[in-house]
């Protein structure tokens, strides 16, 4: 296990940014503790609810939060805040590239991206946002979901403690709905229990990989 985690961290240190990336992620301004030197508390059980996959088919979220370690993030596809949803997408991309090169980690992990803007983020919009990331390439599975409505979404937001505020602006004669939120990414163990919640300050592939390795070492 230690070899697998070390290989993934080495990949992150030496791999160049891909052409479609806006640039490498900034370096951490602290040295994260090594796996094996700390534990992760059990924060809360992840909620369940109906979500829609990229084909518009209903699924139960619990099918994608159990049996593997899961990294789950809420986004909305029109977010342009560099410290918000685009940051989460860049970190997930980096995690996938690193872990895809490490078979032991690859079989232990999944990524989940869930929209909290069902009014705009239809399954078709999520397909455009996801691009080729969910492809069956033998790497870490990455699932993209939305919900039927705000009503279907709300229990998931409440269960994860993800706050989202909506305001409506009316420039000229047109109305425009704006969403604001604090970026949160959740690390879940194989039992579907949230073990860490990352904000933009601590959301970095190195910290997430270390925490994944902590969970992998648990019985």
Keywords:
219 residues; alpha+beta; Glutaredoxin; two-stranded antiparallel ribbon; 6 helices
Brief write-up:
This protein is of the alpha+beta class and 219 residues long.
Mean pLDDT: 86
Compute the CA-based radius of gyration: 17 Å
Task: Say how many strands there are.
Answer: 10
* Integer tally of domains: 1
Based on the structure, what is the oligomeric state of the protein chains?
Answer: single chain
Q: Architecture in CATH?
A: 3-Layer(aba) Sandwich
CATH superfamily: Glutaredoxin
Q: Distance between termini?
A: 13 Å
- List the helices and strands in order: HEEEEHHEHEHEEEEH
- What are the segments in which pLDDT stays under 50 over at least 5 consecutive residues? 9-22
Overall form: globular
Biggest β-sheet strands, sense, barrel: 6 strands, mixed
Q: Describe it for me?
A:
- It is a single chain.
- The protein has a six-stranded mixed β-sheet with strand order 1-10-9-4-5-6.
- Mean pLDDT is 86; it is low at 9-22.
- It has helices at residues 2-14, 85-100, 103-106, 123-130, 150-160, 205-216; strands at 44-45, 50-52, 58-60, 69-75, 109-115, 142-145, 164-169, 176-181, 185-188, 193-198.
- It is of the alpha+beta class and 219 residues long.
- The protein is built from six helices and ten strands, in the order αββββααβαβαββββα.
- Strand 5 (109-115), helix 4 and strand 6 (142-145) form a beta-alpha-beta unit.
């Amino acid at each position: 296990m230690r070899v697998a985690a070390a290989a993934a961290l080495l990949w992150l240190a030496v791999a160049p940014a891909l052409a479609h990336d806006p640039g490498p992620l900034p370096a951490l301004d602290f040295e994260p503790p090594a796996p094996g030197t700390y534990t992760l508390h059990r924060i809360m059980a992840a909620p369940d609810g109906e979500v829609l996959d990229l084909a518009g088919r209903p699924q139960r979220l619990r099918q994608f939060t159990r049996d593997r370690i899961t990294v789950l993030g809420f986004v909305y596809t029109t977010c342009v805040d560099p410290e918000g949803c685009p940051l989460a997408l860049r970190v997930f991309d980096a995690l996938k590239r690193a872990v895809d090169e490490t078979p032991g980690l690859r079989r232990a992990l999944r990524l989940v991206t869930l929209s909290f803007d069902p009014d705009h983020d239809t399954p078709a919009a999520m397909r455009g946002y996801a691009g080729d990331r969910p492809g069956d390439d033998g790497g870490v599975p990455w699932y993209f979901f939305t919900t039927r409505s705000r009503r279907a979404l709300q229990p998931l937001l409440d269960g994860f403690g993800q706050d989202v505020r909506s305001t409506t602006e009316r420039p000229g004669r047109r109305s425009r709905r704006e969403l604001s939120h604090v970026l949160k990414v959740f690390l879940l163990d194989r039992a579907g229990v949230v073990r860490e919640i990352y904000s933009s300050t601590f959301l970095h592939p190195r910290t997430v990989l270390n925490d994944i390795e902590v969970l992998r070492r648990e019985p």
